[in-house]
Amino acid sequence: MNMFLVVAVSLMLPVQAGNLEDGIAAANAGEYKTALRLLMPLAKQGNAIAQNAIGWLYLGGRGVDKNSAEAQRWFRKAAELGEPRAHWNLGLMYEDGIGIEQDCEKAVMWYHKSAEQGNAIAQVNVGELYASGSRCIKKNYVEAVNWTRLAAEQGDVKGQLRLGAHYAHGWGVRQDRKEALRWYRKAAKQGDVEAQYRIGSMYEHGEGVVPDQAEALKWYRKAAEGGNAGAQVDLAYMYYSGKGVPQDYKQAASWYKKAAEQGFAVAQRLMGYMYQHGYGISQDYGEAVVWYRKAAEVGDAKAQSNLGGMYYKGKGVPQDYEQAYAWVTLAINYGLEQARQNRTIITTRMSPTSIRQAEALARELDEKIKSRLPE
Questions:
Q1: Is the dihedral of CA 267, 272, 276, 280 positive or negative?
Q2: 172 with 144: CB under 8 angstroms?
Q3: I want to staple 39 with a disulfide (CB 3.0 to 4.6 A). Which of 23, 127, 248, 336 is the partner?
Q4: Is residue 4 pLDDT above 60, yes or no?
Q5: pTM (two decimals)
Q6: What are phi and psi of 246, to 5 degrees?
Q7: How far is residue 244's CA from residue 250's CA, in Å, rounded to a whole number?
Q8: 3-state DSSP: the chain helix, strand, coil percent, rounded to 5?
Q9: DSSP assignment, residue 67?
Q10: Beta carbons within 10 angstroms of residue 36's beta carbon
């Protein structure tokens, strides 16, 4: 969550608006030397947004030699002019001790200054810090709600989405799914696809509303068409199961594939299943293995078990009991207890030496998987 802030140019720009906008755009595009050339003159003239951006460039060694002291100097200049992102960035420097002695009291002070300026982005960020906790801020859902509400009431879409989540789960407030739905609707009206997806889920499962599969389908489709992978999967399942819509395996496969191509592991596994059984798509064991492997390699236990099954039966891959044993072992280790029976069956085809080799392979595969997973 700790992220240094550089952008969001105000609509009320100084005289040199073109250079400021172009400089920030260049920084966002990774064209750091161009950003430095355009922003440094503005920073020296006292433009707080440019000063904050220059601090960000120095902090990361972007287009200049990395220099945390120089970054801090520019952040302070911007902070003195009331730039909320600079307040936030100073808070992070104090919290993490970047080029400065770690000081939680000062970190919290700067975080609060950032949000107290009325900047909705900063308010959402401080709310997230309280929701998740950090080195300097103890988790406190009530504080998280307070800061998030300030942003939401300003119309900030992320604030509205997060406040809805607080009400949906009862984090820092009494659980109230109707109130959650109200805030999700506000965010959805602004085009937020995650909010649209959550509204669809509430209608599907009757959370805060009377269950309504047609409404669920409508909201899932909005979010899915906007690229939300979770909505694409749930929309696909409605087509697969004929829930609220005529059963249509072809549509199901199409939506699963859209989510799978975004790297969504559940969708990758389900795409493997569709290929394995030929639902809505030509049966292709080789493609089934490809998709099962993608999901298995990021820790999806069911995909690991299914991949093991393909190796056991020699479908889409040469039959290989050691690979089958290794992948099914991973499925068990990743929480799929029912895979244990399958492993017992596999061992009946293996020698003790082969089992030892398969166990070593499972450990090797597990190390590779863990190296890919986010911390």
A1: positive
A2: yes
A3: 23
A4: no
A5: 0.83
A6: -55, 140
A7: 16
A8: 70, 0, 30
A9: -
A10: 20
**DSSP conformation letters of 13-59:** --TTHHHHHHHHHHHHTT-HHHHHHHHHHHHHTT-HHHHHHHHHHHH
Give a three-class secondary structure readout of 141-155: HHHHHHHHHHHHHCC
Give, rounded to a whole angstrom, the gap between the first and last alpha carbons of the chain: 12
Q: What is the mean pLDDT of the chain?
A: 93
d(CA 160, CA 348): 56
Please say whether the beta carbons of 20 and 9 come within 8 A: yes
CB 233 within 8 A of CB 203: no
Of 17 and 209, more confident: 209
Long-range contacts of 104-110 (CB under 8 A, 24+ apart): 104/135, 104/136, 107/136, 108/136, 108/137, 110/79
Report the candidate in 299, 297, 321 with the shortest Cα–Cα distance to residue 308.
Answer: 321
**Burial category of 73 from C-beta neighbours within 10 Å (exposed 0-12, middle 13-18, buried 19 and up):** middle
**Is residue 268 within 8 Å of 240, Cβ to Cβ?**
no
What token pair was written down for 116?
């107290």
Half-sphere exposure of 183 (CA within 13 A, CB side): 25
The residue whose two tokens read 């496969």 is 253
